[in-house]
Amino acid sequence: MDSINFNINNMPLDVKNAYINNLRQLRNKFLNDTDKYILNDFPITDDKRNEIIKYRKELREFMNLDIVKIENLNDDIMNYFPKKPLFII
Fold first, then answer.
1. CA angle, 29 as apex, 27 and 35 as ends, to 5°?
2. Which of 25, 58, 62, 67 is deepest in the core (most CB within 10 A)?
3. Annotated domain spans of the chain
4. What is the pLDDT along the chain (89 residues), one digit of tens a residue?
5. CA distance linking residue 78 with residue 16, whole number of Å
């Protein structure tokens, strides 16, 4: 199936703001879920900590996108967020 580029800037302003707010809430949850992993005294390897740092950076950058590539309008938006490292519970 061909993918479409879903440009949130083409949405009515109230719909766009609600969409962005929902994405931001999810992103913030994912950041909060990983806070403990970047603490210096959390027992984790440097490689895993670097993986978390990279994931958190990708989460922040995701919110800067104006266009989200959507392959199916029925897809779960979770499919488009950066993939969390496998060791995160």
1. 105
2. 62
3. 27-84
4. 455 556 666 778 887 788 778 888 999 999 999 999 999 999 999 999 999 999 999 999 887 765 555 555 556 777 778 999 999 87
5. 18
Asked if 31 contacts 56 with a C-beta cutoff of 8 angstroms, the reply is yes
One-letter amino acid of 12:
P
Q: How many CB atoms lie within 10 A of CB 42?
A: 12
Cα gap 83→59, rounded to integer Å? 9
Taking the C-alpha atoms of residue 71 and residue 23, their distance in angstroms, rounded to an integer, is 18
Helical residues (DSSP H) of 1-89, grouped into ranges: 13-34, 46-62
For 39, the token pair is 């603490």
